[in-house]
Amino acid sequence: METFIVPVSIFIVAIMLLAVYIIRKPSHKLLGILLVLLALSMYITSIPIFAVSINNFIDHAYQHQTPPKGAKAAVIVLAGGWSTDENGVPFQPSISTMERLYAAVKLSKELPSCCKFLIMSGGYDIYSEPTVSVASIMQDAAKTMDCRAKIILEDKSRNTDENLKYSAEIIKQLGVKYVVIVTSNSHMERAMNFARQYIPEDIKIYAYPSGGYRPKMEMTLKAFLPDVRALSASCVAIKELIGNTVAKLSSAQ
Protein backbone atom coordinates (compact mmCIF):
# COMPACT_ATOMS: atom_id res chain seq x y z
CA MET A 1 0.00 0.00 0.00
CA GLU A 2 3.01 2.32 0.31
CA THR A 3 2.80 2.74 -3.48
CA PHE A 4 -0.24 4.96 -3.01
CA ILE A 5 1.57 7.49 -0.85
CA VAL A 6 4.29 8.36 -3.37
CA PRO A 7 3.86 11.77 -5.08
CA VAL A 8 2.70 10.45 -8.45
CA SER A 9 -0.07 8.35 -6.86
CA ILE A 10 -1.19 11.17 -4.59
CA PHE A 11 -1.34 13.51 -7.59
CA ILE A 12 -3.42 11.03 -9.64
CA VAL A 13 -5.87 10.45 -6.78
CA ALA A 14 -6.15 14.18 -6.11
CA ILE A 15 -6.96 14.95 -9.76
CA MET A 16 -9.53 12.17 -9.87
CA LEU A 17 -11.28 13.37 -6.70
CA LEU A 18 -11.31 16.93 -8.04
CA ALA A 19 -12.75 15.68 -11.33
CA VAL A 20 -15.56 13.81 -9.55
CA TYR A 21 -16.37 16.91 -7.54
CA ILE A 22 -16.46 19.14 -10.64
CA ILE A 23 -18.52 16.70 -12.74
CA ARG A 24 -21.31 16.98 -10.17
CA LYS A 25 -21.72 20.58 -11.30
CA PRO A 26 -23.49 20.63 -14.70
CA SER A 27 -21.82 23.87 -15.80
CA HIS A 28 -18.33 22.39 -15.32
CA LYS A 29 -18.98 18.85 -16.54
CA LEU A 30 -16.63 19.15 -19.54
CA LEU A 31 -13.77 20.30 -17.30
CA GLY A 32 -14.41 17.36 -14.99
CA ILE A 33 -14.25 14.92 -17.90
CA LEU A 34 -10.96 16.43 -19.07
CA LEU A 35 -9.52 16.02 -15.57
CA VAL A 36 -10.62 12.37 -15.52
CA LEU A 37 -8.80 11.81 -18.82
CA LEU A 38 -5.72 13.54 -17.41
CA ALA A 39 -5.73 11.33 -14.33
CA LEU A 40 -6.18 8.20 -16.44
CA SER A 41 -3.32 9.15 -18.77
CA MET A 42 -1.05 9.80 -15.79
CA TYR A 43 -2.00 6.47 -14.27
CA ILE A 44 -1.37 4.53 -17.48
CA THR A 45 2.04 6.10 -18.13
CA SER A 46 3.15 5.57 -14.52
CA ILE A 47 2.49 1.84 -14.22
CA PRO A 48 5.36 -0.60 -14.90
CA ILE A 49 3.41 -2.76 -17.36
CA PHE A 50 2.96 0.20 -19.70
CA ALA A 51 6.56 1.41 -19.30
CA VAL A 52 7.98 -2.01 -20.12
CA SER A 53 5.64 -2.51 -23.08
CA ILE A 54 6.36 0.83 -24.75
CA ASN A 55 10.11 0.51 -24.19
CA ASN A 56 10.16 -3.03 -25.56
CA PHE A 57 8.35 -1.75 -28.63
CA ILE A 58 11.15 0.76 -29.25
CA ASP A 59 14.04 -1.46 -28.20
CA HIS A 60 13.18 -4.29 -30.58
CA ALA A 61 13.09 -2.10 -33.66
CA TYR A 62 16.73 -2.92 -34.48
CA GLN A 63 19.06 -5.85 -33.93
CA HIS A 64 22.87 -5.90 -34.17
CA GLN A 65 24.07 -5.35 -37.72
CA THR A 66 27.71 -5.46 -38.84
CA PRO A 67 29.52 -4.78 -42.13
CA PRO A 68 30.99 -7.61 -44.23
CA LYS A 69 34.23 -9.07 -42.87
CA GLY A 70 37.25 -7.17 -44.12
CA ALA A 71 35.24 -4.11 -45.14
CA LYS A 72 36.75 -0.83 -44.00
CA ALA A 73 34.18 0.83 -41.74
CA ALA A 74 33.78 3.69 -39.28
CA VAL A 75 31.79 3.43 -36.06
CA ILE A 76 29.86 6.48 -34.85
CA VAL A 77 29.25 6.44 -31.10
CA LEU A 78 26.54 8.90 -30.03
CA ALA A 79 26.95 10.57 -26.64
CA GLY A 80 24.26 10.16 -24.03
CA GLY A 81 25.38 12.66 -21.42
CA TRP A 82 27.93 12.61 -18.62
CA SER A 83 28.29 12.38 -14.86
CA THR A 84 29.57 15.27 -12.77
CA ASP A 85 31.58 15.54 -9.57
CA GLU A 86 30.54 17.34 -6.37
CA ASN A 87 31.34 20.68 -8.03
CA GLY A 88 29.23 20.02 -11.09
CA VAL A 89 32.27 19.44 -13.31
CA PRO A 90 31.90 16.63 -15.92
CA PHE A 91 34.41 13.85 -15.28
CA GLN A 92 33.06 10.61 -16.75
CA PRO A 93 30.42 9.34 -19.22
CA SER A 94 26.88 8.74 -17.97
CA ILE A 95 25.60 5.18 -17.65
CA SER A 96 23.87 5.47 -21.01
CA THR A 97 27.03 6.75 -22.70
CA MET A 98 29.12 4.02 -21.08
CA GLU A 99 26.76 1.34 -22.44
CA ARG A 100 27.18 2.77 -25.95
CA LEU A 101 30.93 3.14 -25.57
CA TYR A 102 31.36 -0.39 -24.25
CA ALA A 103 29.40 -1.80 -27.21
CA ALA A 104 31.49 0.20 -29.71
CA VAL A 105 34.86 -0.74 -28.22
CA LYS A 106 33.79 -4.38 -27.95
CA LEU A 107 32.74 -4.34 -31.60
CA SER A 108 36.06 -2.82 -32.67
CA LYS A 109 37.91 -5.61 -30.86
CA GLU A 110 35.73 -8.34 -32.37
CA LEU A 111 36.16 -6.92 -35.88
CA PRO A 112 39.58 -5.20 -35.77
CA SER A 113 40.17 -5.47 -39.52
CA CYS A 114 36.81 -3.85 -40.20
CA CYS A 115 36.17 -1.19 -37.54
CA LYS A 116 39.17 1.05 -38.13
CA PHE A 117 37.72 4.29 -36.80
CA LEU A 118 35.63 5.20 -33.74
CA ILE A 119 33.99 8.61 -34.06
CA MET A 120 33.07 9.93 -30.61
CA SER A 121 30.19 12.33 -31.21
CA GLY A 122 29.17 14.76 -28.47
CA GLY A 123 29.77 18.45 -27.83
CA TYR A 124 29.80 20.73 -24.83
CA ASP A 125 27.12 21.31 -22.19
CA ILE A 126 24.81 24.02 -23.55
CA TYR A 127 23.57 24.86 -20.05
CA SER A 128 26.91 25.82 -18.52
CA GLU A 129 30.30 27.28 -19.33
CA PRO A 130 32.08 24.98 -21.80
CA THR A 131 34.86 23.08 -20.04
CA VAL A 132 35.14 19.69 -21.71
CA SER A 133 33.20 17.93 -24.46
CA VAL A 134 31.42 14.62 -24.03
CA ALA A 135 33.48 13.33 -26.96
CA SER A 136 36.76 13.91 -25.12
CA ILE A 137 35.39 12.25 -21.98
CA MET A 138 34.34 9.28 -24.12
CA GLN A 139 37.82 9.15 -25.60
CA ASP A 140 39.42 8.94 -22.15
CA ALA A 141 37.02 6.17 -21.12
CA ALA A 142 37.66 4.24 -24.34
CA LYS A 143 41.39 4.28 -23.67
CA THR A 144 40.82 2.65 -20.29
CA MET A 145 39.00 -0.13 -22.18
CA ASP A 146 42.15 -0.71 -24.21
CA CYS A 147 40.56 0.61 -27.39
CA ARG A 148 42.91 0.05 -30.34
CA ALA A 149 40.89 1.64 -33.12
CA LYS A 150 41.71 5.18 -34.20
CA ILE A 151 39.54 7.61 -32.21
CA ILE A 152 38.20 10.72 -33.93
CA LEU A 153 36.44 13.43 -31.94
CA GLU A 154 33.31 15.20 -33.14
CA ASP A 155 32.75 17.79 -30.42
CA LYS A 156 30.46 20.36 -32.06
CA SER A 157 27.10 18.57 -31.81
CA ARG A 158 24.44 19.43 -29.26
CA ASN A 159 21.69 16.96 -30.20
CA THR A 160 21.04 13.83 -32.28
CA ASP A 161 20.48 15.81 -35.47
CA GLU A 162 23.87 17.49 -35.16
CA ASN A 163 25.53 14.22 -34.02
CA LEU A 164 24.85 12.71 -37.42
CA LYS A 165 25.22 15.93 -39.40
CA TYR A 166 28.76 16.62 -38.19
CA SER A 167 29.76 12.95 -38.11
CA ALA A 168 28.67 12.64 -41.74
CA GLU A 169 31.20 15.34 -42.66
CA ILE A 170 33.96 13.26 -41.05
CA ILE A 171 32.73 10.12 -42.81
CA LYS A 172 33.03 11.82 -46.19
CA GLN A 173 36.63 12.79 -45.41
CA LEU A 174 37.53 9.24 -44.35
CA GLY A 175 36.24 7.82 -47.61
CA VAL A 176 34.71 4.70 -46.03
CA LYS A 177 31.73 2.96 -47.58
CA TYR A 178 30.42 1.33 -44.41
CA VAL A 179 29.21 3.05 -41.24
CA VAL A 180 28.00 1.55 -37.96
CA ILE A 181 25.78 3.63 -35.68
CA VAL A 182 26.09 2.80 -31.97
CA THR A 183 23.55 4.22 -29.55
CA SER A 184 20.91 3.01 -27.07
CA ASN A 185 18.13 0.74 -28.28
CA SER A 186 15.46 3.34 -27.57
CA HIS A 187 17.45 6.02 -29.40
CA MET A 188 18.41 4.01 -32.49
CA GLU A 189 15.35 4.73 -34.66
CA ARG A 190 15.86 8.49 -34.41
CA ALA A 191 19.60 8.19 -35.00
CA MET A 192 19.09 6.04 -38.11
CA ASN A 193 16.59 8.52 -39.54
CA PHE A 194 19.10 11.36 -39.25
CA ALA A 195 21.91 9.11 -40.51
CA ARG A 196 19.99 8.40 -43.71
CA GLN A 197 19.38 12.12 -44.08
CA TYR A 198 23.04 13.22 -43.85
CA ILE A 199 25.20 10.24 -44.89
CA PRO A 200 25.57 9.81 -48.69
CA GLU A 201 23.38 7.15 -50.27
CA ASP A 202 26.34 5.14 -51.58
CA ILE A 203 27.47 4.46 -47.99
CA LYS A 204 25.92 1.44 -46.26
CA ILE A 205 24.62 2.18 -42.75
CA TYR A 206 24.35 -0.44 -40.00
CA ALA A 207 22.62 -0.21 -36.62
CA TYR A 208 24.34 -1.59 -33.52
CA PRO A 209 22.11 -0.87 -30.48
CA SER A 210 23.64 -1.00 -27.01
CA GLY A 211 22.13 -2.03 -23.69
CA GLY A 212 18.37 -2.24 -23.55
CA TYR A 213 18.09 -5.53 -21.64
CA ARG A 214 14.80 -5.63 -19.75
CA PRO A 215 13.68 -8.52 -17.52
CA LYS A 216 10.36 -10.12 -18.28
CA MET A 217 7.49 -8.30 -16.58
CA GLU A 218 5.51 -10.50 -14.24
CA MET A 219 1.76 -9.93 -14.30
CA THR A 220 1.36 -9.14 -10.61
CA LEU A 221 -0.46 -6.37 -8.77
CA LYS A 222 2.77 -4.37 -8.63
CA ALA A 223 2.83 -4.16 -12.43
CA PHE A 224 -0.36 -2.08 -12.29
CA LEU A 225 0.53 0.23 -9.42
CA PRO A 226 1.98 3.73 -10.10
CA ASP A 227 5.74 4.02 -9.83
CA VAL A 228 7.99 7.06 -10.32
CA ARG A 229 10.62 5.07 -12.21
CA ALA A 230 7.99 3.66 -14.54
CA LEU A 231 6.69 7.16 -15.22
CA SER A 232 10.21 8.34 -16.04
CA ALA A 233 10.81 5.38 -18.37
CA SER A 234 7.48 5.99 -20.12
CA CYS A 235 8.30 9.67 -20.62
CA VAL A 236 11.67 8.80 -22.17
CA ALA A 237 10.02 6.34 -24.54
CA ILE A 238 7.30 8.81 -25.53
CA LYS A 239 9.99 11.44 -26.13
CA GLU A 240 11.79 9.04 -28.47
CA LEU A 241 8.59 8.24 -30.35
CA ILE A 242 7.95 11.95 -30.87
CA GLY A 243 11.60 12.47 -31.84
CA ASN A 244 11.36 9.61 -34.35
CA THR A 245 8.31 11.20 -35.94
CA VAL A 246 10.02 14.59 -36.20
CA ALA A 247 13.14 12.99 -37.70
CA LYS A 248 11.08 11.15 -40.31
CA LEU A 249 9.17 14.30 -41.25
CA SER A 250 12.45 16.22 -41.44
CA SER A 251 14.04 13.64 -43.76
CA ALA A 252 10.93 13.55 -45.94
CA GLN A 253 11.11 17.27 -46.70
Q: Which radius of gyration do the C-alpha atoms yield?
A: 22 Å
Helix content: 40-55%
What general outline do the C-alpha atoms trace? elongated
Class inferred from helices and paired strands: alpha/beta
The fraction of residues assigned to DSSP E strands is 5-15%
C-alpha termini separation: 51 Å
Uncertain runs: none
Main sheet: strand order:
5-4-1-6-7
Mean pLDDT: 84
Question: Number of DSSP helices?
Answer: 8
Chain oligomer state: single chain
Strand and helix order: HHHEEEHEHEHEHEH
Secondary structure: number of strands = 7
Largest sheet: 5 strands, parallel
Report on this structure.
This protein has 253 residues and is an alpha/beta fold. The chain contains eight helices and seven strands; from the N terminus they run αααβββαβαβαβαβα. 50% of the residues lie in helices and 13% in strands. It starts with 6 loop residues before the first helix and ends with a helix. The model has no long low-confidence stretch (mean pLDDT 84).
